[in-house]
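Hi R.,

Here's the input for the magnesium ion complex you asked about:
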Amino acid sequence: MFELSTPVQNLYLVGPQRAKLLKNLGIETLEDLLFYLPRNHLDLSKFTPIAELKVNEWANVKARVLSATSFRTKVRRLTMTQALIEDDTGSITCVWFNQPFLSKIIKQGENFIFSGKVSLRRNSAKNGSASGGKLQFQNPIYEIEKQEQIHTARLVPIYSLTAKLTQKQLRTIIKTYLDKAVIPEYLPPQILKTEKLFPEDQAVKTFHFPSDLTKLKQARNRLAFDEIFQTQTKVLQHKKIRQLQSSYQIQTKNLLDQKIRSLPFNLTDSQKQALKDIFSDFSKPYPANRLLEGDVGSGKTIIAALSMLLAAKNGLQSALLSPTEVLANQHYLTLLKLFLDDGINTGLLTSSSTKINGNPVSRQTMLAQISGGQTRLILGTHALLEKTVQFKNLSLVVIDEQHRFGVQQRSTLKQTSRAHLITMSATPIPRTLALTLYGDLDITLLNQLPTGRLPVKTKFVPEAKRADAYQFIKKQINDGRQAFVICPLIEESDKLGVKSATAEYEKLSKQVFPELKIGLLHGKIPAKDKESVMLEFKENKINILVATSVVEVGVDVPNATVMMIEGAERFGLAQLHQFRGRVGRLHHQSYCFLFSEDPNAGTNPRIQALVSSNNGFELAEKDLEIRGAGDLYGTQQSGYSFKIANMTNLDLVARSKLLAQQLLEQDLMLTDHPLLAEKIKKHGVIHLE
Ligand code: ADP
Ligand code: MG
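And here is the predicted structure with magnesium ion in place:
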């Protein structure tokens, strides 16, 4: 028997050369090898009598070898092996190229199983053989009938491969070691029994080499259970441990009443509920982990801002993290303005600028003010997460557009694990994922837009109507409104016809709207200029802003009413919805015009979806439909992957959650379940911490 931790290069049949190939597949130990599950199975369990073979079908025959020879072809000097095989119903020729050793294996008189695609012989009756008809097998898989079949005559596992490794090689290696190793059971026997699950060892072995489809299904059930149960255990353990940690209690009593009354608008009921949820988090002794989920324009920023103000009034620090500098800067200006009269020291820290209360300061001063606790509201990009940034009493961290932060960046937040955490996103999470991956999260939905908003009118505009669209924009601007023009690229490239922001900027400012003020914004513009362009746009000193996806998330210029998107088919649906969310943020009727170099883009399913719905949640579902569940939002960005489990299986999710909960109640640190502890450690990635 072999230890599961044995490195694969030490295994017979593998060795250093193949170990390198296996590493490409993420296989380093024997355990990795055994858990390298097939992506599907080829059903080769049924045999076809030779007389019934049909051209172009994949078939499986049991046959005796009548003759086999290897020779060199005249034309291309290839080695060709030819075998004539027969069963009770007829005979057929098999040919293989460049496998001269074959004539030693496929020997006359032996019984083999052959499987492969039946093709037509170009030149039948060669070698003077009358039999064989016109059909032949080219490069069929073969396996001697006496042995246990692993490559033919069964449900044959098909693996994802890497160059220089064949199905047959990998299958042989895996099969060999499945027979030599035992996977110890990590689940308590009670769970196995009540859930009627295969033991893991049996499940893995069966999943590779199932005897029939029913067994395969049972194996799949067990492995799917494992994926969800392990994730649940990890997530819930994390939640329980968090709840044992102490955090800052933030007093809420009446501290915000006056501020809320002085806002230029009334909070929506959803916003009020969100604040209530957050206040209740703040009254608890352990750090909160709350997701604030609301469609674009639902007013998440003010909730973040008020929560931060509350912390500041308690003498505590809070930080707001944005995925882009443009957004960090915008939030900074918003908070400065909102809290002008509150006398709270507010800082901005990004990789290119450091400011306190609107004035540039040195990075050193900034860091000193943060570690000294004088600066209470701290805004910035991921630059805030660097180790050099030390807080005095960081009580609250808000992450805006959390889906834009990589898993890695989020886990560096760990240094702030005592702080309450609020993440904000406009991207809805499917319910199953909310229960599993995000099981550690409390979720507040902002399912209401502020009153007086008109749905944005969205149209796909054919090229012939472009001039009309420009006329329309001009009219909007004459009425005092503003417009965005989004382009897929920054600079002109050789990608024929793809609009670049720089070229559009030139065209619009020189030819189309010479009398208007046009601005340009993209990732390569120096931070200072970005700031001033955004400021001028915000103050309506720029009429039209030509930009790349830098304005995709968060940008809030409520006076803008037109969002014109060039090369619309190049953007994802969520992205398009985000762009559109930049307009319609006040009571003005707003418009989203979609353009494309491709005249047929109007039938593109994403574009059609966007035109037909304004609702982010509906669109997310459409998106899922269009892209397929394999791409399910959240699984990738969370760092978890589900290979087997069907994430729409709510019942399984709910049941495994309950079991994980019961188990953790008995044994939070999993000291009595070391194998399970080991398994969930391998999940490696922690979400949203
Ligand atoms: P998002 O949820 O997309 O981040 P924002 O927080 O940027 O949305 O809010 C969008 C716009 O709506 C902002 O201009 C904001 O000032 C405004 N707003 C927020 N709450 C309300 C409200 N209750 N009534 C009216 N306008 C609001
Ligand atoms: Mg926002």
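One thing worth noting: The two ends are 40 Å apart (CA to CA).

Cheers,
M.
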